[in-house]
Amino acid sequence: MGKTSQPLSRTGVDPLNGLVLAHLESMQQHLAQATLSAQEVHALRVDCKQLRGWWQLRRESLGNAAVSEHQARPRAIARALAGPREARMLRKTHARAYAWVDERSQRLLDALRPGLISAALSESVAELDHAPLKRLLSDEMAAWQAAPLTGEELTAGLKFSRHRLHKLAARVISKREIETSHRLRKWIKYRRFQLALAHAALGETAGRELESPSRGRRREPELLDKAASRLGNQHDLAELALWVGERVMLPAAEKHLVGDILRLADQRLEQALTPLAKLGYA
User: Fold this and answer.
1) What's the chain's average pLDDT?
2) How many angstroms separate the CA atoms of 238 and 259, rounded?
3) Of residues 116 and 175, more confidently modeled
4) Cβ burial, residue 71 (10 Å; 0-12/13-18/19+)
5) What is the pLDDT of residue 42?
């Protein structure tokens, strides 16, 4: 593939980089719209995470510093698209936790509900300026065109992400740190996006050979999805517990409610470790 920007139909792009560039072109088309729906914003943020996961494939060839610089572009786009997400996630997690905590905690959550509504109303929705995001995306396109992803980088990157998951899972098990769980979830998603790229570019048979073997009938992508979802629930519950700790409550009531929520968070962590254990990561 040449270094100049041309339509995919007029270039001899290999399947691997053809998929990357098609992904970027789809993002450009979305950003060309005057307004974006909530679903489109969410999809673009996922697109940015995919790009970050694909850059992580190149840590061995480019080095950590260069990969971090490249990741900064999709990260900046995702942050600009974040909007008033915190209050929405708190309300969603509040409702999820309500179904699982005891009656005393339910009464306390009922009392805190007006505060969640107030937080949501106080978050203004800023007008999105598409121009700088388009420039960042154009720079991202140029970076991938200047240095196409190679098959060797894909293989080495998947080996690295497998090693990183082993390391992070071991630390989560021994330390039980929320921040480490969050990093583990991030790398689970990176590896999931990397495997999806491999499958799409190389085909089912070759892509499957790059997966970690699993115990049972479920394959690595499905097990990674389960683990990521449960770690996401753990993180959201921990954020809710933090929010509760910042409210004005009697100490005994706060201790009870925070403890109840964190108990749920720890359950979600244990549930997340189950599919990872089937892959040999935990």
Assistant:
1) 89
2) 10
3) 175
4) middle
5) 87
Distance from C-alpha of 220 to C-alpha of 217, rounded to nearest angstrom: 10
Query: Percentages helix, strand, coil for the chain, rounded to the nearest 5?
Result: 80, 0, 20
How many other β-carbons are positioned within 10 Å of the β-carbon of residue 66? 14
pLDDT of residue 13: 55
Helix and strand counts by DSSP (H, E) for the chain? 12, 0
Contact 197, 210 (CB under 8 A): no
DSSP type of residue 56? G
**Residues, the chain, total?**
282
* pTM for this prediction: 0.87
Q: How far apart are CA 233 and CA 239, in angstroms?
A: 10
In three-state secondary structure terms, 183 is: helix
Tokens of residue 202, six digits: 């190389």
Cβ-in-10-Å burial (0-12, 13-18, 19+) of 193 comes to buried
Task: Work out the angle between the directed axes of helices 103-122 and 251-278 (0-180°, nearest 10).
Answer: 90
Tokens of 88: 């929405």
Q: How far is Cα 81 from Cα 41, in angstroms, rounded to an integer?
A: 6
Angle at 185 between CA 68 and CA 208, to 5 degrees: 90
